[in-house]
Write a structure and sequence with these properties.
- The protein is an alpha/beta fold and about 250 residues long.
- The protein has one domain: 3-Layer(aba) Sandwich (Rossmann fold), CATH 3.40.50.
- Helix content is about 40%, strand content about 15%.
- The strands form 2 sheets. A 6-stranded parallel β-sheet has the order 2-1-3-4-7-8, with helices on both faces. It has a two-stranded antiparallel sheet with strand order 5-6.
- The longest helix is centred in the N-terminal third of the chain and has 14 residues.
- The protein is globular.
- Keywords: Hydrolase.
- InterPro entries: AB_hydrolase_1 (IPR000073), AB_hydrolase_fold (IPR029058), Sec-Metab_Biosynth_Hydrolase (IPR052897).
């Protein structure tokens, strides 16, 4: 018993996977706080994001890049965290390296059903907006209009911060969000999982048939639920200590 208690106090190893219209730098504040708490933290970048200008990428390319990062760094016993679109990446990455994962954490992350896409999780008018943005782009990418970003992604931010975060966002490759994913293997896995629900997140309508929790989270079966104040993006910049603590609560033994 003494040895088990000691093991529970050991620092965790986090691999943090960002979402759409973001890059690995999205995690800078939260990662710094987790490291200050004594944890090891890794923030892989994936194709079509960060400094990569190529928007012609697939969901499989993104997933493989994250799995390859985990293998290349010889990471084991990890807590694999997916925010937003990163939730779908975590699902498929878990299929590739299940033996290296201690726990999966979805941080207002998409939990897709087998055969679904990320775009499928939105109401029809939003799906149509994404399709229109895709059709009018020159490189099959999605650029959100500022009013949409302001009201849905950063509703807790003041206007100055909202504009700053919007200016930092880069065009998002469209293809991966529209791909319907085979997740049969994911749903056969028994890796422990948690859902960290940010209660003011306005990206998805919290109505019947939509929303982060309980609509999407319930697809995980038995899972740990942790709640925190926060919208989709603001608190990652303004309250990284709070989110780091909540991530720890979602991830500890």
């Amino acid at each position: 018993m003494e040895q088990r208690a000691k093991e529970r106090e050991q620092p965790l190893t986090f691999v943090l996977v960002h979402g759409s219209w973001a890059d690995a730098g999205f995690w800078n504040g939260v990662a710094a706080m987790l490291r200050r708490m004594g944890h090891r933290v890794y923030t892989p970048e994936y194709p079509g994001h960060g400094s990569d200008p190529n928007k012609n990428v697939t969901h499989a390319m993104i997933t493989k890049a994250v799995a390859d990062f985990i293998i290349a760094n010889n990471l084991r016993d990890i807590v694999l965290v997916g925010h937003s679109f990163g939730g779908s990446v975590v699902q498929k990455t878990a299929e590739l390296v299940p033996d290296r994962i201690k726990r999966l954490v979805f941080m207002d992350g998409f939990v897709l059903g087998d055969g679904q896409s990320v775009v499928d999780q939105f109401p029809l008018p939003v799906q149509q907006m994404f399709e229109q943005l895709r059709q009018t782009s020159k490189d099959d990418s999605l650029v959100l209009p500022f009013p949409v970003f302001r009201e849905l992604f950063v509703n807790l931010a003041d206007i100055k911060l909202a504009q700053q975060l919007y200016n930092e966002a880069k065009p998002e490759p469209a293809k991966p969000a529209f791909e319907k994913l085979d997740l049969k293997k994911f749903y056969s896995l028994t890796i422990p999982r948690s859902y960290l629900y940010l209660t003011e997140d306005n990206l998805l309508p919290q109505g019947e048939g939509y929303g982060w929790h309980p609509h999407m989270s319930s697809r995980l079966g038995v899972f740990r639920l942790i709640r925190s104040h926060g919208d989709h993006m603001t608190y990652f910049r303004t309250q990284p200590g709070l989110l780091a603590q909540k991530l720890y609560e979602a991830s500890r033994d």
